[in-house]
Design goal:
alpha/beta, globular, about 270 residues, seven-stranded mixed beta sheet, Metallo-beta-lactamase, Chain A, single chain
């Protein structure tokens, strides 16, 4: 009898796992590099959650209380338009922030975050925070420091480790590469060969990151994903690159460019 019940329970779990694996992945783009990813299994991952200070975010999304539950936060580097509201969201949800080891170490050392919410990892490392979900930290060609208020309320700069990107593999096998802020580098090809991302979230604004021409070269010559979602543009006068320029630079490539405005929600 107990053996039969065990077999029934195992079958139910297997069916539930299959249903999750066949579910949809939902991405909500706030603006800049901020995304909310809802996995097929219902887990919520926030990436680079710059919300309250964001310049291009729709007004109706400028409310941390409307985000809902968050299970995990990824931060690619310490700049304010990426670290953003991660600390508050983390504390509210008791959700860990995974980011550059140096950044997380400083946040704990300075007493800004409890150590259990800023665990350490580094490039090449992979975590499995939920069943069926794997997240690997990758290289990004950029800088990383963070500005925090000291005890006198003065802005103070602290080192924040090395900038990074993340390969996010979901329960159904769908792979997203959030590239963070980066210039072109040759090992984009190696990362793509190792992980074979379906969708890349790629910066195109220029000045601090790739411009549309460089981003298109990286997309079609080095990475060759199925889809590319341009991000990190138009939020300040220096980020002049546009999706139209990126699309033109892709030329007759068969890679699908995701057409989106801040506030866009899409399923994959």
């Amino acid at each position: 009898m107990f053996r039969l019940l065990g077999m029934i329970a195992a079958a139910c779990l297997a069916l539930a796992g299959t249903a999750q694996a066949q579910g949809k992945t939902e991405l909500l783009w706030y603006s800049q590099a901020a995304f909310k990813i809802t996995t097929p299994g219902g887990k919520v991952i926030m990436v680079d959650p710059w919300i309250m200070g964001a310049t291009k975010i729709p007004p109706e999304l400028k409310d941390l209380g409307k985000i809902g539950k968050v299970d995990l936060i990824l931060v690619t580097h310490g700049h304010g338009d990426h670290l953003g509201d991660a600390l508050e969201i983390s504390k509210t949800n008791n959700a860990p922030i995974w980011g550059p080891a140096g950044m997380n170490q400083w946040l704990a050392t300075l007493g800004r975050m409890p150590a259990n919410l800023v665990p350490r990892m580094n490039k090449g490392g992979t975590i499995e925070p939920f069943p069926g979900v794997k997240i690997t930290m990758t290289h990004a060609e950029h800088s990383s420091e963070m500005i925090l208020k000291d005890e006198h309320g003065k802005d103070t700069s602290y080192p924040a480790g090395e900038p990074a990107g993340f390969i996010i593999q979901l329960e159904n096998g769908f792979k997203i590469w959030h590239m963070g802020d980066t210039g072109v580098f040759g090992d984009m090809k190696l990362i793509a060969e190792l992980h074979k991302p379906d969708l890349i979230l790629i910066p195109i604004g220029g000045h601090y990151v790739m411009d549309p021409k460089d981003a298109a070269f990286a997309t079609k010559e080095l990475i060759k994903p199925k889809m590319a979602w341009p991000m990190h543009y138009a939020s300040n006068p220096f980020l002049k690159g546009t999706p139209a320029e990126f699309k033109a630079a892709l030329g007759d490539s068969k890679i699908e460019m995701i057409v989106a405005e801040p506030g866009t929600k899409k399923e994959f």
